[in-house]
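Continuing from yesterday's entry. The apo prediction looked reasonable, so today I'm repeating it with adenosine monophosphate included to see how the binding region is handled. Same sequence as before; SMILES copied from the compound registry.
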Amino acid sequence: MGNLFVICEIEEGKIADVSLELLTKGRSLANDLSCKLEAVVLGHQLKGIEKQVFPFGVDVLHVADSKDLDIYTTLPFTAVIVDLFKQEKPEICLLGATTLGRDLGPRISSALQSGLTADCTSLEIGDHEDKKAGKNYKNLLYQIRPAFGGNIVATIINPDCRPQMATVREGVMKMEIYNESHKGKVKTIEVDKILKPEDLVVKVIERHMEKSKVNIKNSSIIVAGGYGMGSREGFNQLFQLAEVLSAEVGASRAAVDAGYADHERQIGQTGVTVRPKLYIACGISGQIQHTAGMEESAMIIAINNDSNAPINKIADYVINGEVNDIVAKLIKLYKKNSK
Amino acid sequence: MGLKIIVLAKQVPDTRNVGKDAMKADGTVNRAALAAIFNPEDLNALEQALRLKDRYPGSEITILTMGPGRAADIIREGLYRGADKGYLLTDRAFAGSDTLATSYAIACAIRKIKNFDLIVAGRQAIDGDTAQVGPQVAEKLHLPQITYAQEVKSAENGKITVVRRLERGVETVEAPLPCVITVNSSAPDCRPRNAKRVMKYKHAKTVTESQAQSEDYIDLSTDRPYLNIEEWSVNDIETDMKWLGLGGSPTKVKKIENVVFQAKESKRITNNEEELEAMIVELIENHTIG
Ligand SMILES: Cc1cc2nc3c(=O)[nH]c(=O)nc-3n(C[C@H](O)[C@H](O)[C@H](O)COP(=O)(O)OP(=O)(O)OC[C@H]3O[C@@H](n4cnc5c(N)ncnc54)[C@H](O)[C@@H]3O)c2cc1C
Ligand SMILES: Nc1ncnc2c1ncn2[C@@H]1O[C@H](COP(=O)(O)O)[C@@H](O)[C@H]1O
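Holo prediction written out below.
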């Protein structure tokens, strides 16, 4: 049996959180399967990069270091990975459901004629019996994901083709060091032998990347606002509550679409997944696509003028009334009671 | 210099309004139970193609869609908004396709259409949200791809320049033609139907649709060839059956579950200061805040 591979992304020399989350998940799946966890990093000037991944339990790190891989473009990344996978024959390949992963993943799966499941929210190992064909499969990857706009949850399997490929959004899996002193092996990929001139025809001529300003994923308290905040000004009141609570501000998609908040604050199925200690949902109805990204919060307070809003079903405290009025009172009362 | 542009457009169930009978027992979608719409980002894709046509006179836009017979609606909608012609790829052999089998069938159809400079797809379809078919088609045709396109800056002298909208910024890239681009919802909305074009194309039909009609219509379409929507079955394109449909799909649906909320016991609080203050004090005391 082949091993489990994680394609890692790097941002300014640092392995991206989503990749470390996948390594954490990958390590535990590899243990279930009694196989090795291998990782691939592509980029330029990657000396020492193994130090970042070995603590997550990586047994083998494949490094592709080349000027041609400095900025991501589809074709050379595909060529390098397809070449590697043809030799290594991985059992499973995981990658982040990022703009990079969603560009690269389908390309690799198409080249290798293998299945790919996008945006999984859970990954497990399990068996499968195909009654029609009279076949039994052991230890398949269950790729569990919401489907149909989040209204159902589907378990997808890939019985016959390898690798079994899946993408996962940032924040969905937990990140955990496996063993600080775990040591793996580094293998160097000879990029120059793989790339052909036709792999280098797409050129990036301009790039403006912003550093992420918000860090809702790692915040222990989140004040999130929805369409019920009524306006951008109304929404901005949440920043005051967040400030006194040392919280971060999140948003529903309807609030983002209405221009009340930036996209990077969006929580839910097509945003980030969060599990803070406290989640205060202000003027959010609680559609399934939103709750998918926050229902694991330890405590939920819902503020809504509709006493039957779906969010109330998963809330620990339901506050019924005008949101702007209640938020103003919460700010005042918190200041009064905290020392 | 006109461009030959193929727009990939899909008819999708309106997942924003899903009922109970949306899924069949075998885990595939019961399309009949849902309103069918033009996939939203495919409209963004069509608009980018239309802008290129405005800019490069003599350009021609062909809509390619794979789906059941009623997906001919997608082609008519495209014609109303400015596309020039369309192909409907429809056959029972395609049923149950996952993204890989879909992209294989579409790539085979594109090989048959043959003459093209640019393929424009939507970033993703709202029934699966996978965003895979565009890149998979590109790989099968050995073409470069530009995903997350927000604006096509130019497409001339054998080159295309595209602004991509990424998670944390924007990027301008240049690729040789022909290539595949996939368009984001951050790109401009599609222009509405044009009344004159609706008049012109409202009787556009596939062979199957015409046969179901009275003979007048058949006469009409022999008279006016632009009213023919080409319909291709598996026999009209060159394929290897083993890559098609359910059998050609590596991914299988093992299980489908409806999402049910576990309702929690919640404390109900009304909007008055005493109750709110009691809650705040409780949260401070159990160290949730503060
Ligand atoms: C494929 C797909 C993916 C999606 N992904 C996401 C996602 O990642 N994240 C996400 O959030 N959504 C997502 N959505 C959208 C989701 O379905 C909902 O449309 C969205 O979450 C609704 O946002 P909302 O609750 O802010 O707005 P609404 O549903 O409009 O709710 C507003 C709420 O505010 C309350 N309210 C109004 N005025 C007041 C007031 N003055 N005081 C108090 N309460 C008030 C109302 O009673 C209501 O409950 C997705 C949808 C689809 C189809
Ligand atoms: N059956 C189809 N017919 C035509 N185009 C399709 C079809 N399926 C997918 N596409 C195109 O591929 C894009 C991505 O689809 P998906 O991978 O399903 O999210 C869509 O926005 C369409 O442009």
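Comparison notes:
- The mean pLDDT of chain B is 90.
- Chain B has one domain: 4-251.
Will overlay with the apo model tomorrow.
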